[in-house]
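Example (one chain per record):
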Amino acid sequence: MSDCKQENQLESSKFVMPPASAHVYSCFVKNYTNDAVQCSVYYLGRPNENKFNEVINVTIPSQEEKYFARKMFQPDAPDVNETYDSSRHSYCSWVKIIQKLKIVKTNGKTLEIEHPFDKVHSPIRNWEFHVYTMIPQESAVQALLTLVRAAGYDRIDGLELRTIAKLTRFVMKNKYF
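Predicted structure:
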């Protein structure tokens, strides 16, 4: 067998580590709005076993933050009155993952994000989620146009301001901010 074939066989048999899971174990929710918000954090225990899931509901006052700690559980631990049986029990602890965040503002608007979360590419603790006050979309477009005109532009990279305004409206209407 030639050296080239042997090298190719060695390369194809190399172990490739799978990517790390993108789990969030604990987080801060920071309320940058002018009003209190209702926050629900959904923890997932062991998949397909709802008995380990948990929901924490809190009110976060304006300009404050709340920390949601890492949650542990022992799914196979013996009950208080049970004798340990190695074929059925384990003292192994598992970590719950944050599956969903739900924020309800005072105006009734609901913001929900679910796993997998943006920009989370590996297991993380103390992840941050920020809640902001939004200005009306049309006011944002007008503010953008005012700023561009004040800077002395009537076009940007060949695009007319009315085209930029249309594109801005499209992005804002088709994304959830």
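Caption: The two ends are 60 Å apart (CA to CA).
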